[in-house]
């Protein structure tokens, strides 16, 4: 049932969302001409949509169709299924749903203790019925949530062998391939997914692939389509948070802030949007509001990367002690996550490179690169090598993260800044100037600590020297 949501009564794919997408893409293109503003459909209450179903039913629909679920609804769903399984322990489907619900709960709350519970339920489902696409799909989602992309690929491919038309497995494989740096495989998987379904969840996944391939306008249009077609406030809020992140990455602060604020209004538990507000408000100079937004986000979703961002904001304000508190929180959260099977080596490596032991960062990130050589790991390892004084090797990884020919197609200001700083250290003045300028063009506010450094280094590099144009013979073009 969950994999037929985009088909009409004759069993053929419903093309109406594609028509809506074409209209939205045209409107987005028009907005881009007027300064890059992205306009979504009115938020409202959903117009003529059917009345809301019971919370447990809403969450069941969400976790079985790959869309975000509201936290209160998830709690109801988990309670209902745990009660059911106490008297029906051989219900493989119920075990798979319970496992998927715990994965979503862990993802939404950043409480890693939910992941062992998810794994226990999913493995119980597989013990009852081994050829069980729902449980295999859930194991792939769990591995992605833990950032174990190799395991996610294995589980996802096993799920497709069981049921190749199960569209909810394809997004898990897209995540896994992306984390492993297999961008062509991610694109092929998206093409197969779009042939099966074109609903809002699929458009959100498509947006992620488009963004990773440097197609930011296509990503914005796909997220616009997803938000317009979302069926619940929690789902719409999740897509708006991603639209806000995309706007932030291109430096459109007012647009990003509007999306983040609307996401929180629709779903107060959308803590990623609150962290996004903190990031954006800091760039706008509204520091007190930014600090408050980060604190609330961390109170409900204590992700290590939020602690790192808040710590660096404190540092930029000269509040070293407050920054150290956040860095201690980061270490504590990473340790807890590791105990629950989560791989947070990437964020820990970035932290150690800038605020701790650069050699330790290199060791961690080398191991991470061997396990899962994605673009983000290439950038982080390159930067850690630079911080450890190994700039020639660092440049190889920085190029892998930023060269379009090497898979680094995402336009990320931090990645380009890292490359520019490495080139400057190697005495490559012209490339360094070009890449630092590009980082500030992509997003002039990409970091409260690093953006001012980029500006200062550019001033130190000065303007490129004037080059005399050789005189030529006007008739032949020869000197």
Describe this structure in words.
This protein has 479 residues and is an all-alpha fold. Among the domains are: 66-197, Serine Threonine Protein Phosphatase 5, Tetratricopeptide repeat; 344-461, Serine Threonine Protein Phosphatase 5, Tetratricopeptide repeat, CATH 1.25.40.10. Helix content is 70%, strand content 0%. It is built from 24 helices and no strands. The chain has helices spanning 16-33, 55-64, 71-87, 92-109, 114-128, 133-145, 149-162, 169-179, 183-196, 200-212, 216-229, 233-249, 253-266, 271-283, 287-300, 304-316, 320-339, 345-355, 358-371, 375-387, 391-402, 413-425, 429-442, 450-461. The radius of gyration is 24 Å and the shape is globular. Mean pLDDT is 88; it is low at 1-51 and 472-479.
Question: Which key terms come to mind for this protein?
Answer:
70% helix; disordered N terminus; 24 helices; 479 residues; disordered C terminus; globular; Serine Threonine Protein Phosphatase 5, Tetratricopeptide repeat
Question: What's the arrangement of secondary structure elements?
Answer:
Layout (H helix, E strand, L loop, with lengths): L15 H18 L21 H10 L6 H17 L4 H18 L4 H15 L4 H13 L3 H14 L6 H11 L3 H14 L3 H13 L3 H14 L3 H17 L3 H14 L4 H13 L3 H14 L3 H13 L3 H20 L5 H11 L2 H14 L3 H13 L3 H12 L10 H13 L3 H14 L7 H12 L18
Helix pairs in contact: 1-11, 2-3, 2-4, 3-4, 4-5, 4-6, 5-6, 6-7, 6-8, 7-8, 8-9, 9-10, 10-11, 11-12, 12-13, 12-14, 13-14, 14-15, 14-16, 15-16, 16-17, 18-19, 18-20, 19-20, 20-21, 20-22, 21-22, 22-23, 23-24
């Amino acid at each position: 049932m969950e994999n037929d949501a985009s088909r009409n009564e004759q069993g053929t794919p419903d093309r109406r969302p594609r028509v809506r997408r074409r209209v939205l893409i045209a409107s987005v293109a028009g907005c881009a001409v007027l300064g890059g503003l992205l306009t979504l459909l009115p938020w409202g209450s959903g117009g003529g949509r059917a009345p809301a179903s019971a919370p447990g039913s809403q969450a069941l629909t969400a976790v079985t169709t790959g869309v975000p679920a509201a936290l209160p609804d998830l709690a109801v769903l988990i309670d209902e299924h745990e009660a059911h399984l106490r008297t029906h322990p051989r219900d493989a489907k119920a075990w798979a749903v319970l496992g998927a619900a715990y994965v979503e709960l862990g993802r939404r709350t950043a409480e890693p203790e939910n992941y062992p519970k998810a794994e226990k339920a999913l493995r119980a489902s597989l013990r009852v019925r081994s050829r069980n696409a729902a449980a295999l799909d859930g194991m792939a989602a769990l591995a992605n949530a833990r950032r174990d992309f190799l395991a996610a690929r294995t589980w996802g491919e096993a799920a497709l062998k069981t049921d190749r038309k199960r569209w909810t497995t394809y997004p898990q494989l897209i995540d896994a391939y992306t984390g492993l740096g297999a961008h062509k495989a991610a694109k092929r998987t998206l093409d197969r997914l779009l042939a099966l379904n074109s609903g809002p969840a699929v458009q959100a996944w498509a947006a992620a692939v488009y963004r990773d391939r440097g197609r930011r306008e296509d990503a914005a249009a796909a997220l616009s389509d997803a938000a317009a077609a979302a069926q619940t406030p929690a789902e719409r809020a999740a897509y708006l948070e991603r639209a806000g992140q995309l706007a932030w990455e291109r430096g459109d602060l007012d647009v990003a802030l509007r999306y983040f604020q609307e996401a929180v209004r629709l779903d107060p538990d959308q803590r990623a949007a609150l962290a996004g507000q903190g990031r954006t408000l800091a760039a706008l100079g509204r520091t007190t509001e930014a600090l408050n937004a980060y604190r609330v986000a961390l109170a409900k979703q204590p992700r290590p990367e939020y602690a790192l961002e808040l710590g660096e904001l404190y540092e930029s304000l000269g509040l070293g002690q407050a920054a150290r508190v956040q860095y201690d929180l980061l270490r504590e959260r990473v340790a807890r996550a590791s105990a629950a099977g989560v791989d947070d080596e990437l964020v820990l490596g970035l932290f150690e490179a800038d605020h701790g032991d650069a050699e330790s960062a290199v060791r961690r990130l080398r191991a991470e690169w061997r396990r899962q050589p994605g673009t983000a790991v290439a950038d982080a390892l390159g930067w850690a090598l630079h911080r450890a004084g190994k700039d020639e090797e660092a440049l190889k990884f920085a190029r892998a993260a930023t060269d379009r020919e090497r898979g680094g197609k995402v336009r990320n200001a931090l990645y380009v800044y890292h490359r520019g700083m490495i080139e400057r250290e190697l005495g490559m003045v012209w490339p360094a100037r070009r890449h630092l300028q590009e980082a500030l063009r992509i997003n002039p506010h990409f970091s409260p600590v690093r953006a001012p450094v980029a500006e200062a280094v550019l001033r130190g590099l000065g303007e490129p020297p004037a080059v005399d144009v050789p005189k030529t013979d006007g008739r032949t073009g020869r000197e």
